[in-house]
Here is the input.
Amino acid sequence: LKENDQSLQFTIVMTSSHGCGSNSSGQIELMLQRRCLRDDGYGVGEVLDDQTHVDPNLALILDGPDRSAEVHRRLALLLEFPNTLLYAQPVTNIVDYTARYAAESSFLARDLPPNIHLLSFYAAAPGYTIILRLQHIYPKDEHPTLSQPVTLNLLTLFGEYTPKTIEETTLSANQPLSEVRRPVWRTEDGVSASLPAAALDPTQVTLTPRDIRTFRVAF
Here is the structure.
C-alpha cells in the first residue's frame, strides 16, 4: 500500500500465500488460516475447516517506496531460506576450537552484488563440476539502482579455484544453451527466427532484471 503522494509504503513480506483485504479505511485483514463454521457459498459445497497447524512467518515494512523495494526482496529470501543450524560437541573454549577447526569458509571469492541471488550451487557428475544458477531478484524499474543490469566475471568468482570450462545451459541444466533450437512459428509479421545463443564470455556475464541464468562449471 502506498500513500497518494508516494512518500510512504506499507509492505507485508510472507513465506506463503495469504488472503488479504480491507473491510474499512485504515484497516488490513490478513487471513492466516481458513476455518469456516459454514459453507461460504462460493462453489466448494462444503465447510472449509482446515485444521492443519500453521506457523506463519510475516515481516512488516513501513518506509519510502525505494527503500521498501530495496529491503523486501532480500528480506523475502531471508525468510524463505533461513540460516541452517549445525550442532557439535559442547565447546569449553571457543579460542581453542577456532584455532583447531575452520569456523568460516566460502567457495566464493567475494560477496555477490546485493541484487544477485545464488539460486543453485550443487555438484554434478562427472568430476569436479558444479551447477551454478544466478538470479537477478529485482524487476525492471522497481528501484533506481538495484533494478539495473549486473555484469559478473565468473572466472574470478571462485577465488583460489579457477574454472577450466564454463558452459551456459538451459534453465534446468539438461542441455547446453548453444544446442537449443527454438521452434519456428508463423506470425503476423512473417516467420519467427530461431537464433542460436551468443557465444559465452565468462568475464562478461550480464543479468538483466528478473533474469535467471544457469551454468555448468568444471574445475
